[in-house]
Specification:
The complex is a heterotrimer. Chain B is mainly alpha-helical. Chain B is built from two helices and no strands. Chain C has one domain. Chain C is rod-shaped, with a radius of gyration of 65 Å. The chains are: A alpha+beta, B mainly alpha, C mainly alpha.
């Protein structure tokens, strides 16, 4: 169901239909809105309404845009785009023209004054700029980073006074212990886990709280941004690659107990697995789960509008409420599960990199290695 | 159109795999209730790996 | 895949990398290190306390065993002492008894000897008395006989009469 809706919604061609004052009530508008939501945005949009005069009003606040253009660093507030997201509004700054299409800021080529689109709706006379803006996701990251820092440094301070925390610290302490005792220690091993616990805990709470933040009506979708999950996955990649010991590299590059001829092939596969597949699966899993969750919840809420005609107002609303309530409950679980799995797999990969193979491999009569559990696990991943 | 069919195939495969994982884990838990924690952890890890594979395929086809 | 790459924002990636690095650094320095150190300390403290309690328990057990041993020893000693005392008592009584017996026997023997000698001397005295008395009587009889002839007859007569009566 999650997969299907991801695909179905993603495949819908995007149309620019804002003729009825920007109200979102038809099927295509809902789909467009959902797709828009799961992308990052340059302003913090809370809600919109149509006033008595028939004007569409957007309530929210603008965020600063910081872009690296062909003329150097340029900054302005996102309110200058006037909530336009289709390349209609052109902002002139620093001698260059900018426009925003689907949450991406484009720099118009020299001489162009409006954006021209080809039939695939790609801009032909504009190119993307490197966008360091304080987008909604960055606001989310900053917010959660601050929150985490305040919570946990207060917990740390509490320990200075007495051994048992009070108040909110009592909620945080079991979580810290959980990550340490259930994720870091068993997967990395008693000897090395201390070095990596800090990273794992940061990542766990970062992902979990951001996932939960995504379920609030503020509409953050930070862990559903590829850039964010890619960054997290690459951090894990760097950590386990940098801390891999001799055994780890030998098992990757020159697998012992395998016929010599197969070893280079195996090395290629192992290298691809360690450097590409592992981080890719980490980043895609988190991104896809969270994005799919958002899409499903929003689609179920949209039942209110899309099935209004066939089920009536009460029927559509109650169906939508019941379904979205239960899916939101599942999403709360998924929020934790994805944070857990990301941290768990990171710990597992790190554990495989620092594991000490002090045991001799058993060999059967033909000189082949009998794989032990660890090797099987390593091959599988 | 074709990638929708591909997505369907991926989902079928992933579904069968997840069913196998879940079912076998349940059997294992029923046989040895005292190993529930370990089985659950292993089950979640394997399910996550499968999920990663399925998502990877889905997004490659998208 | 194209759409995914289009969605990927390199700028956000850079910003996120910087923020995450900063966050990890700050959290490790100001939160995780102190928290984990305190937790470890606390756990070690608990472990130490448990160990100490275990040790104290063991010591208590040892003490208890010692006490028991001492008590047993004391009891055995008391028992032995009592037994000894009882034996001593019995011996003393026996000794006293035998001594008393011998003494009594001696005394009795002495008394018998004394009685024997007294008896002998008394018999001797009696014998002398009887002899002197009989001599006196004989003297008197003889004297009277010699003074009075009639009377002599009378006496002889009475004596003869007595003898007849016998």
């Amino acid at each position: 169901m999650l997969f299907a809706s991801t695909i179905a919604l993603a495949e819908t061609p995007v149309k620019d239909g804002a003729n009825d004052g920007g109200q979102i009530d038809t099927k295509t508008e809902v789909e467009e809105y959902i797709l828009h939501h799961i992308q990052d945005s340059h302003d913090f949009h809370l809600f919109s309404y149509t006033n008595d005069a028939g004007e569409r009003k957007h309530i929210g606040f603008p965020l600063p845009v910081i872009i690296w253009t062909s003329n150097g660093l340029t900054t302005f507030m996102s309110s200058e785009f006037h909530h336009d997201d289709s390349g209609q509004v052109i902002v002139e700054k620093n001698g260059l023209k900018f426009t925003k299409i689907h949450s991406k800021i484009y720099e118009l080529d020299a001489g162009a004054s409006t954006v021209a689109f080809d039939e695939d709706h790609h801009a032909t006379n504009a190119h993307k700029v490197l966008d360091f803006s304080i987008t909604k996701s960055v606001v989310g990251v900053l917010l959660i980073g601050l929150l985490m820092f305040v919570w946990f440094s207060r917990l740390a301070k509490q320990y200075k006074k007495k051994a048992i925390p009070t108040g909110f610290g009592r909620v945080l302490e079991p979580l810290v212990l959980y990550v340490r005792d259930e994720i870091a220690r068993p997967n990395i091993g008693e000897k090395h886990y201390r070095r990596f616990t800090g990273y794992l805990m940061t990542v766990f709470f970062f992902i979990w709280i951001l996932n939960l933040l995504g379920l609030t009506p503020f509409g953050f979708n930070v862990t559903g941004q590829l850039a964010v999950t890619a960054c997290l996955a690459i951090f894990t990649l760097i950590i386990y690659t940098a801390s891999g010991n001799k055994d780890y590299w030998m098992h990757i590059l020159w697998m012992p107990g395998v016929p010599i001829l197969i070893r280079p092939v195996l090395a290629l596969i192992e290298l691809a697995g360690a450097l590409i597949i592992k981080p890719f699966s980490l980043l895609v899993r988190l991104f896809a789960n969270i994005s799919a969750g958002h899409i499903v919840v929003m689609s179920l809420i949209a039942i209110m509008f899309t099935l209004k005609k066939s089920l009536g107002v009460v029927g559509a609303t109650s169906l939508s409420l019941v379904l979205s309530f239960f899916i939101t409950l599942i999403e709360v679980l998924v929020a934790f599960l994805q944070a857990y799995i990301f941290t768990m797999l990171s710990a597992l990969f790190i554990g495989m990199a620092v594991a000490e193979h002090d045991h001799d491999h058993d060999h059967d009569d033909h000189g082949h290695e009998i794989p032990d559990a660890e090797d099987v696990r390593a091959d599988f991943i | 159109m074709y990638n929708l069919i591909g997505a369907g195939l991926i989902v079928i495969g992933a579904g069968i795999g997840l069913g196998q994982i879940g079912g076998k884990a349940m059997e294992g838990i029923a046989r040895q209730p005292e190993a529930t924690g370990k089985i659950q952890t292993a089950m979640i890890i394997i399910a996550a790996l499968l999920e990663g594979l399925a998502f990877g395929a889905l997004f490659l086809g998208k | 895949m194209d759409k995914l790459l289009n969605d990927f924002s390199p700028g956000l990636f850079v910003v996120q990398t910087i923020l995450l690095l900063l966050l990890i650094f700050l959290m490790v320095k100001f939160a995780w290190k102190p928290i984990l150190n305190s937790l470890n300390e606390r756990e070690e403290g608990i472990q130490d306390a448990l160990d100490a309690a275990e040790k104290a328990k063991l010591e208590m057990q040892n003490l208890q065993a010692d006490n028991d041993k001492l008590l047993k020893e004391a009891r055995a000693e008391r028992e032995a002492m009592l037994k000894e005392a009882r034996e001593l008592k019995n011996k003393m009584i026996d000794d006293a008894k035998t001594e008393a017996q011998t003494q009594a026997n001696n005394m009795i023997a002495q008394a018998q000897a004394a009685i024997e000698s007294e008896k002998k001397s008394a018999m001797a005295e009696l014998k002398s008395h009887v002899s002197s008395l009989s001599i006196e009587i004989a003297e008197k009889v003889v004297r009277q006989e010699l003074s009075n002839k009639d009377k002599q007859f009378e006496l002889v007569e009475s004596m003869l009469g007595d003898a007849k009566l016998n």
